[in-house]
Specification:
8 helices
Length: 214
């Protein structure tokens, strides 16, 4: 009589490396929030460890220095942006609808995943040169796609004519400023912020509203 052996879990079981990365990303998220409260340049790793209620030794197990935390904070935000781009481009839709979906999903994920993450407003010039160029390259690739969608939306007559680079700068500046004031435990939810700002940005892109005589 043959005995059937249980199937191996294989890739369904997280490897030690996977578990390490999950813990590291969680710690970096919390460290980013600590920087937001204390100020990146004012906070030391000792301050961050205290805010996270871990030892400095434990912190060094996952990151080398403050620069690495800031780098990964920007990478996490860009990962979310890439995911929003992918979702917006997943199905046939107009360029304007791609922009609207991207704006909504990116804000939704930023508010959900990162919450109070004002450290993202820290200039990339605070990073060391190699890491700074890595982030700037990812941003340029991101902006290139958005600018193309803006051009297509202008040609289709769905948004008002304008310089694509300025339009994208307006959108991203609006979105990236949200973590400086948004609070996950506040009166307004992250989804509500995402919906409201998507409407406001869409209206702004479609052109000026005529001013009525009072």
């Amino acid at each position: 009589m043959s005995v059937s052996l249980p199937r191996r879990w294989g890739s369904d079981v997280p490897t030690p490396a996977d578990q390490f990365e999950v813990k590291r990303r969680a710690l970096i998220r919390e460290a980013g929030k600590a920087f937001s409260k204390l100020g990146y340049h004012n906070a030391s790793l000792t301050d961050v460890a205290k805010a996270l209620n871990v030892t400095k030794t434990a912190l060094y197990y996952y990151v080398k220095d403050k620069n690495e935390i800031l780098l990964e904070c920007h990478n996490i935000a860009l990962d979310l942006g890439d995911q929003a781009l992918k979702e917006a481009n997943a199905e046939p839709r107009s360029a304007f609808e791609k922009i609207r979906l991207y704006v909504f999903r990116y804000m939704q994920m930023i508010n959900s995943e990162l919450g109070n993450y004002a450290v993202l407003t820290e200039p990339v010039t605070s990073l060391r040169a190699p890491e700074r160029e890595t982030i700037l390259k990812r941003r340029r690739n991101h902006d290139k796609i958005l600018r193309q969608w803006v051009r297509e939306a202008i040609e289709a007559g769905d948004i008002a004519p304008g310089e694509p680079a300025l339009i994208v700068a307006f959108m991203m500046g609006t979105i990236n400023y949200i973590p400086t004031w948004f609070r996950p435990d506040g009166k307004v939810s992250g989804d509500e912020v995402a919906r409201s700002f998507t409407v406001l940005i869409s209206q702004a892109l479609q052109g000026p509203i005529p001013v009525r005589n009072v």
